[in-house]
């Protein structure tokens, strides 16, 4: 019986190491994407000086900036996993809110039916409520964990 438990412990330890390796590769990939995205923001700002349509140029800069924020929030989720060994949901929800706001910025540029606009706004509302609720839960759990230490 002890041999089976020892084998199970070795297997669990190996799988945990594989998971950490995958998260490390994801963090490295997201870091690289964030740097590339920030470089794109800089290029968009430079292009803004020569843009014929200033409104369109500003929208392009905002799209690039919001994409960078989304990438950084996803990276923060992975980094929080390294710190706590738990997946933090709040940064994922913030990335979702940012993606929906980015979508709202296109409403003036492309033709959308009212249902699509309403669904996007409803998604923002639901994600915001979820971020506030789960953020409070994570904050309370963190304080309980630090109080018991």
Structure description:
The structure is a single chain. With 149 residues, this protein is an all-alpha fold. The protein has one domain (2-147). It contains 4 helices and no strands. Helix 1 (2-48) runs antiparallel to helix 2 (54-84). It is extended.
Give me some keywords for this one:
149 residues; mainly alpha; 85% helix; extended
List the topology elements.
Blueprint: H1 2-48, H2 54-84, H3 90-104, H4 114-147
* Global shape: extended
Proportion of residues in β-strands: under 5%
Structural class: mainly alpha
Give the helix tally: 4
**SSE string:** HHHH
User: What is the radius of gyration computed over CA atoms, rounded to a whole number of angstroms?
Assistant: 21 Å
Helix content: over 70%
Segments where pLDDT lies below 50 for 5+ residues? none
What is the makeup of the main sheet? none
Summary of the model, kept short:
The chain has helices at 2-48, 54-84, 90-104, 114-147. By secondary structure, it is an all-alpha fold.
């Amino acid at each position: 019986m002890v041999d089976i438990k020892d084998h199970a412990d070795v297997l669990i330890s190996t799988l945990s190491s594989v998971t950490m390796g995958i998260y490390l590769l994801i963090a490295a990939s997201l870091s690289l994407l964030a740097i590339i995205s920030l470089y794109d923001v800089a290029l968009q700002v430079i292009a803004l000086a020569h843009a014929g349509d200033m409104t369109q140029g500003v929208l392009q800069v905002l799209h690039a900036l919001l994409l960078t924020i989304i990438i950084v929030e996803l990276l923060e989720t992975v980094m929080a996993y390294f710190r706590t060994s738990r997946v933090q949901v709040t940064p994922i929800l913030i990335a979702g809110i940012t993606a929906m706001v980015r979508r709202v910025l296109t409403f003036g540029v492309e033709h959308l039916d009212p249902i699509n606009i309403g669904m996007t706004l409803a998604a923002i509302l639901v994600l915001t409520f979820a971020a506030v609720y789960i953020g409070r839960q994570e904050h309370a759990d963190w304080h309980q964990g630090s109080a018991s230490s």
